[in-house]
Structure formats: structure tokens, C-alpha cells
């Protein structure tokens, strides 16, 4: 892995623009969804915070200066890229460190989803009816670095992990878990994973639902995702180290990201 100073890269964050989001939030999560609630941008302030934290880490002073204009300036910049406000869009926000730094946003039609999927699973059971994603475990370790902690365009190791798992298209309903050299799950290649909390024996507990869900702590090397922050803040999950060796074929889990929300998954330990 290249060092922070020797690799050319950009800081990125991907989020969903969905005109149906404000109404869904008002009806189902009026007290559990982060402010500002009327916005069609999914988890908007969390994306801004993530960009700022990354820019500060890399000492990108021009980028920090632009981003610290706040939510109003961030929203205005995003608005200028939306081609049709009546449709959902996938936004890939990109920022560089240069004088007059501003956002570049790649806009593409967003995959159609039930907007309830953007809320936490305990807010609605709509996602329970969806077809689960196949969740593979990477066969090679990834070394944690600033490029796993912060989301940037330096994503070659995530691409390599997806190819090792046989995931060749972003349309595949499949994900691969990235594992650090200690054998601990870091995160998914494009998602945050959530597993049933492990008991003292390390085994998954399918019966005591009060044990809840767990997600790997950032100390394992993964990214501080926006949906991860949302899930932790509202008590959907807690942090716990998840050894990859403990994941069981057929184990149910959840995954989430800032474009698709929360999705059911099932661990696949042996590929067909």
C-alpha cells in the first residue's frame, strides 16, 4: 500500500438523492432520523462530516476550507448537479485539494428500492421481504491504512477483493468482507456489515434476540461509513470484533451503505 503522501487520489463519498425520502422519514422515523429531516439527500450531514474528517486527516487545507462552509453550502453545491428533482439519483461526490476547491459530482440513476430500506431495520420490516445478498469472505488479508479508514479513489484492494470473490459487476447482489491480517472483519467492499452479537464462546446467538447486532470497530481498519454511524447512533448495533473464522455458512446478517440503505445478507463460505 502506498503511503499517504506518495499516491495521487481524491476524497469521495457516495450518497442517494431520493425525493420520496422526506415523506418516508416523517411517517416512519420522525424522531430517529438525523436532522435535517426534510432533505432528499440521504444522511446528508454524515456525508459532509466524513469528507471533512478525511480532508483534515490528509491536511487538505483548501478542501477543508470549502467543506467547512457547512450544510447550506454543501447542499447548494449538490443541488447544482441534480438533473431532475423528481427522480432518485446516485451521487458520487469527489473533492481535491487545490485553490478554489469545490465538489465534482458524478450523477447516475439510482437503483430502484423501497424507500423504507433507507431506514433502520427496526423501524420497518419491509426489507425482511427482500432477496438477501450473498456475502463472501475475502481469501486474502488487506492491510489497514488511511485508505481503508477514509473513503478515497484509491480502492484497488477493494476491487481485487471483489474479483477474488467472483463479483465482476456492481449490479451483482453480492458483497465481499475485507479481512485484516489478524483475521478480523474490517468491512464490506462497498458496505458496512452487521452480524448477530457473539456470546462469550464466540458463537453466534440466534435465539437471544436481545443480544442485538454488532459491527466491527474502526480499530479493525474499516471505514467510518454514514449508515454505520446512523445504526450506532440509534442503537441498532454495537461494536464488536468479528473474527472471520467464526462466520458460518448460511448465517444471516445485514449490510448497508449510503446509496442503497439497509439490505439483508447471508454468509456464503463455499462458492459454487
UniProtKB/TrEMBL annotation:
InterPro entries: Aminotrans_IV (IPR001544), Aminotransferase-like (IPR036038), BCAT-like_C (IPR043132), BCAT-like_N (IPR043131). One of its GO terms (molecular function) is catalytic activity. Pfam families: Aminotran_4. This is Aminodeoxychorismate lyase. It comes from Aspergillus glaucus CBS 516.65.
Amino acid at each position: 500500500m502506498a503511503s499517504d503522501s506518495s499516491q495521487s487520489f481524491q476524497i469521495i463519498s457516495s450518497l442517494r438523492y431520493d425525493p420520496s425520502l422526506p415523506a418516508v422519514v416523517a411517517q416512519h422515523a420522525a424522531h430517529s432520523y438525523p436532522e435535517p429531516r426534510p432533505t432528499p439527500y440521504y444522511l446528508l450531514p454524515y456525508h459532509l462530516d466524513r469528507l471533512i474528517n478525511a480532508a483534515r486527516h490528509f491536511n487538505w487545507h483548501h478542501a477543508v476550507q470549502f467543506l467547512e462552509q457547512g450544510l447550506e453550502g454543501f447542499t447548494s453545491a449538490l443541488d447544482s448537479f441534480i438533473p431532475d428533482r423528481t427522480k432518485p439519483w446516485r451521487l458520487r461526490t469527489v473533492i481535491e485539494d487545490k485553490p478554489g476547491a469545490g465538489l465534482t459530482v458524478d450523477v447516475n440513476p439510482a437503483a430502484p428500492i423501497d424507500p423504507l430500506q433507507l431506514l433502520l431495520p427496526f423501524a420497518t420490516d419491509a426489507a425482511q421481504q427482500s432477496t438477501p445478498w450473498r456475502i463472501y469472505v475475502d481469501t486474502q488479508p488487506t492491510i489497514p491504512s488511511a485508505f481503508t479508514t477514509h473513503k478515497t479513489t484509491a480502492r484497488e484492494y477493494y476491487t481485487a477483493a471483489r474479483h477474488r470473490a467472483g463479483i465482476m459487476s456492481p449490479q451483482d447482489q453480492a458483497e465481499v468482507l475485507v479481512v485484516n491480517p489478524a483475521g478480523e472483519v474490517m468491512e464490506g467492499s462497498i458496505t458496512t456489515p452487521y452480524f448477530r452479537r457473539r456470546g462469550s464462546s464466540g458463537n453466534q446467538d440466534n435465539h437471544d434476540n436481545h443480544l442485538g447486532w454488532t459491527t466491527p470497530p474502526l480499530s479493525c481498519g474499516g471505514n467510518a461509513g454514514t449508515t454505520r454511524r446512523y445504526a450506532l447512533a440509534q442503537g441498532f448495533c454495537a461494536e464488536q470484533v468479528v473474527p472471520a473464522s467464526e462466520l458460518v455458512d448460511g448465517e444471516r446478517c445485514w449490510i448497508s451503505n449510503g446509496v442503497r440503505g439497509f439490505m439483508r445478507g447471508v454468509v456464503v463460505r463455499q462458492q459454487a
